[in-house]
Write a structure and sequence with these properties.
single chain; mainly alpha; globular
Length: 423
């Protein structure tokens, strides 16, 4: 596997610079993982601050629910264009520009004076997150192609750390300074520091690698992998991504509001419970390891079934902090740990190496565009059926649709299945 220039020449693996040493590659992965920690902190801090924002600016539950997840519209809309961009220019450049964009609009969120401008800031922050996400997952997936799910699982581990720290630190900052705006200034400023770190420490010898089939520890031929981008496996997995995105972000968007307004939790306790989703997401590391060694379709089906039960219990079960902490952890483990990682890596494996960037872009679009309305949909269901009824439909019944779709996925047509974990 060898590095290519970032332009169209990338399609011809075999020429270019050598790979990094293992130590440098792992160090680079850690640095990039830290940038994804910040991405997750930016995403996850808004919902826990939402009740305070609503009180200050006078938003309804529906408006708040939409604002809590509208950033995913920006992520999704930018996903496909970013995918095509990644197959043409430097992944590192796309990554850096993405971090600059989402950091700037995170900081601007604190300056919002009403619904309209906050809507714009939250949506545009998602554009930057999409660029970073697709570039990061494409680069890491291509570099560590032989154990792709484990590598992407390590990124999800980083996401889990950020998802834990984001709400917890955000609630602490808001409480300490008596102002919900402070966390947005802090997180936005941190993004500019991360850009400098990546520009200084991350080599294109890592980010611009392209998978070379001849270096697989397994069949070198890709004849079994469909030649077209939009093949059956990819499209079916895209539908599953839609299902998981809508269910997961319904929970993420309004769960802290449910805890504070329905169960009477303090902002700090709600932040703690919501942050446990991030701890659950750390399971992405072993979930990816399992995905590299066992049938990914089976893993995803089991995760969806477990998730449907957990989603129901979150809003229909225990009402005290301890059990809610445990259930929120389980939701993170299932939705972010097992499903996000294995759907993403499966979609990359469903296409040939030259199409990994576009497959990543399709995943981002499929997962995040429908998720943009997940919070609003959940709030509408709450208005019609109560919190418990909303959870029944969006977090329990919907995942079963994903189970049905996965039954038609053919894992024997994935690239690089069942290979050594060593590089």
């Amino acid at each position: 596997m060898s590095e290519q220039p970032p332009a169209a020449a990338r399609a011809a693996p075999g020429s270019g610079l050598p790979r990094l040493t293992r130590a440098v590659a792992i160090t680079t992965l850690v640095v990039l993982g830290l940038s994804y920690v910040l991405n997750a902190m930016d995403r996850q801090v808004f919902p826990v601050l939402l009740p305070a924002i609503r009180d200050d600016l006078g938003f309804t539950l529906g408006q708040g629910g939409l604002l809590a997840t509208i950033f995913t519209l920006g992520i999704g809309v930018a996903g496909l264009p970013t995918g095509y961009l990644l197959d043409r220019i430097s992944r590192r450049a796309v990554m850096v520009v993405g971090i600059l964009i989402f950091s700037a609009f995170t900081a601007l969120t604190a300056l919002a004076v009403g619904y309209a401008d906050m809507f714009v800031y939250r949506a545009l922050s998602g554009v930057g997150e999409a660029m970073q996400n697709a570039a990061l997952f494409s680069a890491v997936g291509a570099y560590f192609f032989a154990s792709r799910a484990l590598a992407l699982g390590s990124l999800n581990f980083a996401y889990g750390v950020g998802s834990f720290l984001g709400p917890l630190l955000g609630a602490h900052l808001a409480t300490t300074f008596g102002d919900w705006r402070v966390p947005f200034y802090v997180y936005g400023g941190a993004g500019f520091v991360v850009v400098l770190v990546i520009g200084t420490l991350v080599s294109k010898r890592f980010t611009e690698q392209v998978e070379n089939p001849a270096s697989h520890r397994g069949p070198a031929s890709l004849d079994h992998v469909p030649a077209q981008l939009y093949n059956r496996n990819l499209l079916l997995l895209a539908v599953v991504a839609v299902v998981v995105g809508v269910a997961m972000y319904g929970y993420i968007g309004l769960y802290p509001t449910f805890l504070q307004e329905e169960l009477g939790f303090t902002q700090g306790d709600a932040g703690l419970a919501a942050s446990m989703f991030g701890i659950g997401a750390l399971v992405g590391l072993p979930a990816g390891w399992l995905g590299d060694r066992f049938n990914q379709r089976t893993i995803m089906i089991v995760a969806l079934l477990v998730g449907s039960v957990v989603g129901y219990l979150l809003f229909n079960g225990p009402t005290t902090l301890g059990p809610q902490v445990a259930l929120s952890f389980a939701e993170g483990a299932v939705a972010s740990g097992f499903l996000f990682v294995n759907i993403y890596s499966s979609m990359q494996r469903a296409v040939r190496p030259t199409m990994v960037g576009r497959a990543s872009g399709l995943y981002v679009a499929s997962f995040y565009i429908p998720a943009a309305v997940a919070g609003y949909l959940f709030s509408a269901l709450v208005d019609g059926t109560g919190w418990g009824g909303a959870a029944l439909w969006q977090l329990t019944v919907l995942p079963l649709v994903g189970v049905a779709v996965l039954l038609f996925v053919d894992v024997s047509r994935f690239s690089n299945a069942r290979v050594s974990a060593h590089h």
